[in-house]
UniProtKB/TrEMBL annotation:
Residues 20-78 form the Receptor ligand binding region domain. InterPro entries: ANF_lig-bd_rcpt (IPR001828), Peripla_BP_I (IPR028082). The keyword Zinc does not apply. This is Receptor ligand binding region domain-containing protein. The keyword Transmembrane helix applies. Its main location: membrane. It is found in: Membrane. It comes from Timema podura (Walking stick). Keywords: Membrane, Transmembrane, Transmembrane helix. It holds the Pfam family ANF_receptor. It comes from the Eukaryota.
Length: 84
């Protein structure tokens, strides 16, 4: 039918269809923006809190940006209940 379909959510599949436009930033781009913010704000340590593995995948560049001799990064997964 070629009806335009707009999405604003993260989709790991990165589908390439003629009538699909996803406005959510690519995970690598978004993660690099987080790296830039951490550097600009001069954070010496921080904690990454995520719900599921997809959330952690989105932050992969942020985790890779720091070597073992740099400041600590704590990574915590939220519990299965939705009461945070």
């Amino acid at each position: 039918m070629e009806i335009p379909h707009l999405e604003t959510r993260w989709d790991y599949r990165l589908r390439r269809e003629s009538c699909l436009v996803n406005l959510y930033p690519h995970p690598t781009t978004l993660s690099k923006a987080y790296v830039d913010l951490v550097k600009a704000w001069g954070w010496k340590s921080f904690t990454i809190i995520y719900e599921n593995n997809e959330g952690l995948v989105r932050l992969q560049e942020l985790l890779k940006a720091h070597g073992p001799s740099e400041f600590p990064i704590a990574v915590r997964q939220l519990g299965e209940s939705s009461d945070y």
